[in-house]
Design a protein that fits this description.
The structure is a homodimer of 314-residue chains.
Chain A: E1 2-6, H1 15-26, E2 33-38, H2 40-49, E3 57-61, H3 72-78, H4 83-92, E4 98-101, H5 105-116, E5 126-132, E6 138-142, H6 152-168, E7 176-180, H7 191-202, E8 207-212, E9 224-226, H8 229-248, H9 254-257, E10 266-270, E11 276-279, H10 285-300, H11 303-313
Parallel strand pairs in A: 1-2, 1-4, 2-3, 4-11, 6-9, 7-8, 7-9
Antiparallel strand pairs in A: 5-6, 5-10, 10-11
Helix pairs in contact in A: 1-10, 3-5, 4-5, 6-7, 6-11
Amino acid sequence: MNIALDMMGGDFAPLEAIKGVELFFSQPYQQVNLILIGDEQKINFLLSEYKIPNENIKVVHASQVIEMHEHPTKALKEKQQSSIAIGFHLLATGKADAFISAGNTGAMMVGALFSIKTIEGIQRPTIGAYMPKENGELSLLVDVGLNSDCKPENLNQFSVLGSLFAKHILNIPEPKVALVNLGEEEGKGNLLTQAAYILLKENNQINFIGNAEGRDLLHSKADVYVCDGFTGNVILKFAESIYDIIQNRKIDDEHFNRFNFEIYGGVPILGVNKPVIIGHGISHANAFESMLTIAKKMIDEKLIDKMKNSFKAS
Amino acid sequence: MNIALDMMGGDFAPLEAIKGVELFFSQPYQQVNLILIGDEQKINFLLSEYKIPNENIKVVHASQVIEMHEHPTKALKEKQQSSIAIGFHLLATGKADAFISAGNTGAMMVGALFSIKTIEGIQRPTIGAYMPKENGELSLLVDVGLNSDCKPENLNQFSVLGSLFAKHILNIPEPKVALVNLGEEEGKGNLLTQAAYILLKENNQINFIGNAEGRDLLHSKADVYVCDGFTGNVILKFAESIYDIIQNRKIDDEHFNRFNFEIYGGVPILGVNKPVIIGHGISHANAFESMLTIAKKMIDEKLIDKMKNSFKAS
């Protein structure tokens, strides 16, 4: 198993990525080879500085970096020697089985869509985010911004992708799926959710429990909350801002500390043919370790194959 | 000035409404006559129980009540003697200058749309909610559920209605208007917000400052946040749930206590020809007092005339 990691992505690159690698290898993992992409000299220096054994590590030099605010498509095209471009090249050619970066989110999305391609039968891949439940567990909110305009069938597909992720990666046996809506009763909603409700209700690949309102999103009503990417993006960023306010006000609360979305590492793009994980720009060591762990689990659980089968059957 | 108040609406009716009336009259208000609609016997008993002087109060008997979960259109049609139906009748016939209820929200909306009608030039009325800023001020989020599917021009009109309310009722001289969106830059968004941005930018009746992301909604970026009713409803209910969690976790914080949306009383339906204010089901005395104060201010400030002029000019 070969996992490629962009060492130049994120606000604290490459140091925090190196520390994440150290943490990852401090666990009793087996048979994982890491491909670290970035400034070779810096990476090798840090690897020896942190005394990380190099038998399972290969460093691939990247002479360029796509900065956080560059235009994704343009940057990917013009910076072929960037760590993100090289990562997708390794993934597309089979030299890597998964690719992780906390770099330019747009470039990661564009790269995934164009170099890895969408699983057959899936109209649009999606990207989710974790939501902390008060009982200490996590739910998954999909989509959180990859698809700002959605059709009913898109939401239906997101629900299947989200369920498979919740089941095999979050270890929730029969994940409850709810549709984010402005009322509880069937028939409520905008045109999109009214139509999506009917598809979700008839979808026997998921455990659909009905509508969820904004007030349900932080509770245990469901394990997977499905919405269009516009709504999901606004919710996610609103939730992130709660943590900032909690911090400002010097409130130290176990539950609200879990609104620090950085601790969850990254979120995978669901619906593409290989595991691709996008990290938060402010990722620290534990976030990188968490992304490596999720990538490994996605490969171990053959999640992509399960997704392929799911959409073949339908 | 005659303000009609539904005494039977809300979870704690009519007691909390009576206490709200008492609070309202404990302020040095002048020339306000209240029309209290509901069970005459109960209301008169409570008025004497609370020793509320009755020179500025008229009680209008209503033999029926529209319950919280009744179907709005059906209930309004069948219960002509309900406090809500009578309230709208008084408003439509000019016997009342404003109508307030903490009862069935749907019935209030339907009543407002059908008996009071929309101001000429306005495509769709809207309903807003307050959002607490960390600096102690309030902003207005419109729409929060009256219009689940919106056209760009709807958002443009909401921005004018919201600005007029923020200016004349919230006393913000030149309210900053932001469009709720999934990115800051112009050009970001779904089809609706991309098109609405252009209209808002060219609208010289408002002080448009650009896009606001989910993370900006609790900050001082803008005074009026404009979005479709689906998005606004999810945000509002999400924010309300934060207060519940704060309470559960026994966090007592001045700012988060302001997430108790009940304290703000009610929100007006903006864009109809008379002031109509809808209260929260769990309204207590201070919420009723606050709604009476807002209704009085809407009349004092001639807010409806200002809205009419605004849409005549355009």
